[in-house]
Amino acid sequence: MKITFILKDKSEKIVEAKAEESLLTVMEKNDIPIAAVCGGAGICGSCRVRILNEDSVAPAKDHELSILDALQSDDDIRLACQVTLTEDSDGLRIELI
Ligand code: FES
After folding, report:
1. Which domain does 47 fall in, by range?
2. CA–CA separation, 87 vs 59, rounded Å?
């Protein structure tokens, strides 16, 4: 599947990804800059990204929601380390924030 990242300079980078990979893993494999202070444990909130087509990923679970709420994140913000790609994720668009 193809995932598009919109980088901070607004350029786009399209990468290949597989179902079951985490978004953070895809980003690290493709040298897309992202902070991951807790190493993907879902506790630091540093890997936040904006999901432009939210229907392409499963909704956040309670643990992720509590971190996002604590950081007063908008509804379209997710933790890259907690988003697992599915077969429905082809065409996913992610904006770095
Ligand atoms: S890397 Fe820390 S919450 Fe995702």
Report:
1. 2-96
2. 15
CATH code (residue 36): 3.10.20.30
Looking at the structure of the chain, the number of domains it has is: 1
Please work out whether the CB of residue 42 comes within 6 Å of at least one atom of ligand 1: yes
Task: Give the residue from 8, 62, 57, 69 showing the smallest Cα distance to 34.
Answer: 8
Residue 45 has what pLDDT? 97
| CA 69 – CA 67 distance, rounded (Å) | 5
User: CB of 27 closer than 6 A to ligand 1?
Assistant: no
pTM over 0.70: yes
CB 54 within 8 A of CB 83: no
Of the candidates 93, 8, 24, the residue with the CA atom closest to the CA atom of residue 64: 24
Any atom of ligand 1 within 6 Å of the Cβ of 36? yes
* pLDDT of the residue at 31: 97
